[in-house]
């Protein structure tokens, strides 16, 4: 999701509504005091405290450091910060375009013609605004690193860049015609594409047998405690168990048993109607940012998006959806036990006892970090035993204490305030209104949680907090220490047993630390990294992350500040040892784009990136875009695409 705090808000109704009505008042300590917390400072360079030194680093040392790894284990030569029509990788690396918006996915897909796009064509072609990327080796269960299925989310559309003659305004999607709206619906959802690496080059396998498109119309089953509930029923589906489509799929994840988890994020923007203000569920709509005026035109053409006609339809979005990428006929399932909010992603770690924890952020200013823990261990020997494992378990929300403890609060009907007196008649009510339940439990309001992802090497869990410009000084707390947090930060959660062979991801307790505070050292107050971070290595607005086999973190960004002429990118850092939190710039995106879905092949020799909304700059349009990435062909608009980055001649990424 486009996230730009300085120059524009492409989707103000999404990014500006901090819809948590009463963020908990926190202990009003000063930013500097928080940043001086014991271990949070160890090995860091506190720019706010020593601005003079920061200038020396950036002016006299920065350029020299940019070429060197310093104490980092990462040996690539950093690229330079830039803001241009093209993207960049370090010397010795190569960018390959794997698949673009409009490329064929299904065998009957026609050739892409952006001037004459149809819904039918789009439903057989690769969708728009790719976010989550995952690689599932072929055959199933293997660790093949040169042949597999790419599973990709299509989060939303940029109508002004998709169609000619829509102008260059953010509001173009509210003016789509009926047929354009049908194209937009077909451009949402997911793609599964068989790909292969031959002679060093990645490419789709023509008409791959397992290829699949999932769109805003694909039938899905609802399971778990909210399935069939009265508030899940509509006139088209009186059972409350069958939904059409998945919407605004941002990041995602997978399971130990090899299924995809796709996360429904800003689902609120597709709905509209007077009921947002006056309907029986108005308070619940408000907590999820559902307003009278939809960001899309779809409310005009399909009753299900009109709150006045189908007040329960939005309750059927905001879930985690599971499906088997190896079976194109399998019906996706909305797993309600994992809660309903603006799920950024959903990543897992197997606990020492075999139960599986799934971590998920709720990407909104002042919203929360969650985990779901299965009731039973997963069974590596019996796929059938895992089929509905996600229907039974406990959903927790995080409270980050000032003293470095993290407490996981269970969202269980009948416990604490989650009772009928507070409007929760059942666990279904708790899940449909997960945010309100978490409010009552006094979870810690965070600075927009995006990916929350376990590091398989050190057992810690990394929380990307993208930014929160609305946090006032009196609302700063230990885990969100910066007021008007424009650049975001990264927190580490340390479960019991982290660093040993027996990590307890199911525990209701743990500890936490700050890993880095983003922003430009010496310029942005509170920026904190390893002291050897170069003038190119600082980042802004962390969004997605991935870990390589050495446990190093690769962070992609969304919302790099336009005023600094820095595009979004991919940054890598050690998480342990001398180079801890020494971030280094590996990839710089074309203008207007965010970088999503970092995903390694099992051999770490390829990293896939989803380059989302290239050319999404102010004044950029189909006719006159700010970039024509990746084709650079006259008349061809910019195309969201998945790229593969490899080393020339082979070898592990980052080395
Ligand atoms: Fe779709 Fe939270 O970014
Ligand atoms: Ca984002
Ligand atoms: Ca995101
Ligand atoms: Ca991730």
TrEMBL record:
Residues 1-23 are annotated as: Disordered. It comes from the Bacteria. Residues 1-13 have a biased composition (Basic and acidic residues). Pfam families: PhoX. This is PhoX family phosphatase.
């Amino acid at each position: 999701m486009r996230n730009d705090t300085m120059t524009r808000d492409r989707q103000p109704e999404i990014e500006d509504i901090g819809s948590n009505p009463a963020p908990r008042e926190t202990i009003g300590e000063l930013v500097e005091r928080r940043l001086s917390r014991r271990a949070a400072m160890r090995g860091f360079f506190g720019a706010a405290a020593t601005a003079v030194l920061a200038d020396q680093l950036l002016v006299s040392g920065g350029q020299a450091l940019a070429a060197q790894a310093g104490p980092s284990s990462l040996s690539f030569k950093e690229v330079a910060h830039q803001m241009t029509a093209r993207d960049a990788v370090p010397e010795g690396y190569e960018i390959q375009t794997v698949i673009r918006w409009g490329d064929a996915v299904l065998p009957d897909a026609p050739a892409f013609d952006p001037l004459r796009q149809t819904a039918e064509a789009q439903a057989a072609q690769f969708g728009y605004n790719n976010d989550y990327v995952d690689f599932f080796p072929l055959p199933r269960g293997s660790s093949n690193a040169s042949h597999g299925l790419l599973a990709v989310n299509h989060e939303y559309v940029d109508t002004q860049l998709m169609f000619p003659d829509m102008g260059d305004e953010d509001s173009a999607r509210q003016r789509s015609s009926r047929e354009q709206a049908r194209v937009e619906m077909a451009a949402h959802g997911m793609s599964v594409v068989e790909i292969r690496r031959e002679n060093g080059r990645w490419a789709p396998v023509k008409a791959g047998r397992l290829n699949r498109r999932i769109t805003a119309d694909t039938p899905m089953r609802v399971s778990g405690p909210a399935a069939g509930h009265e508030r899940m029923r509509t006139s088209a589906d009186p059972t409350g168990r069958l939904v059409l489509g998945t919407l605004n799929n941002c990041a995602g994840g997978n399971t130990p048993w090899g299924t995809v988890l796709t996360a429904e994020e800003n689902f609120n923007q597709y709905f509209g109607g007077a009921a947002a203000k006056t309907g029986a569920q108005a308070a619940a709509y408000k907590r999820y940012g559902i307003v009278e005026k939809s960001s899309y035109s779809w409310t005009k053409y399909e009753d299900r998006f009109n709150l006045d006609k189908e007040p329960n339809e939005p309750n059927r979005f905001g879930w985690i959806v599971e499906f088997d990428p190896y079976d194109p006929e399998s019906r996706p399932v909305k797993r309600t036990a994992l809660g309903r909010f603006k799920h950024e992603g959903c990543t897992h770690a197997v606990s020492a006892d075999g139960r599986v924890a799934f971590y998920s952020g709720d990407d909104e200013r002042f919203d929360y970090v969650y985990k779901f823990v299965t009731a039973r261990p997963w069974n590596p020997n019996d796929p059938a035993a895992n089929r509905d494992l996600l229907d039974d378990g406990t959903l927790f929300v995080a409270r980050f204490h000032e003293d470095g403890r993290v407490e996981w609060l269970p969202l269980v009907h009948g416990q604490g305030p989650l009772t009928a007196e507070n409007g929760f008649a059942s666990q279904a009510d708790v899940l449909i209104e997960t945010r309100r339940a978490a409010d009552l439990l006094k979870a810690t309001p965070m600075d927009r949680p995006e990916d929350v992802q376990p590091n398989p090497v050190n057992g810690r869990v990394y929380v990307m907090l993208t930014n929160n410009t609305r946090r006032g000084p009196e609302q700063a707390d230990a885990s969100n220490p910066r007021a008007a947090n424009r650049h975001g930060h990264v927190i580490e959660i340390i479960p019991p047993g982290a660093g040993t062979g027996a990590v307890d991801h199911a525990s209701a307790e743990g500890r936490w630390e700050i890993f880095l505070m983003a922003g430009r050292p010496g310029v942005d107050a509170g920026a904190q990294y390893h002291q050897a971070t170069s003038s190119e290595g600082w980042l802004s607005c962390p969004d997605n992350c991935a870990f390589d086999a050495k446990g190093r973190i690769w962070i992609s960004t969304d919302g790099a500040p336009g005023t600094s002429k820095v595009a979004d990118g991919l940054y890598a850092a050690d998480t342990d040892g001398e180079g801890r939190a020494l971030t280094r710039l590996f990839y710089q995106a074309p203008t207007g784009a965010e970088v999503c879905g970092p995903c390694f092949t099992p051999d770490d020799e390829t990293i896939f990136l989803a380059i989302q909304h290239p050319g999404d700059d102010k004044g950029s349009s189909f006719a006159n875009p700010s970039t024509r990435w990746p084709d650079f062909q006259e008349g061809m608009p910019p195309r969201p695409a998945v790229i593969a980055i490899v080393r020339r001649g082979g070898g592990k990424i980052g080395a």
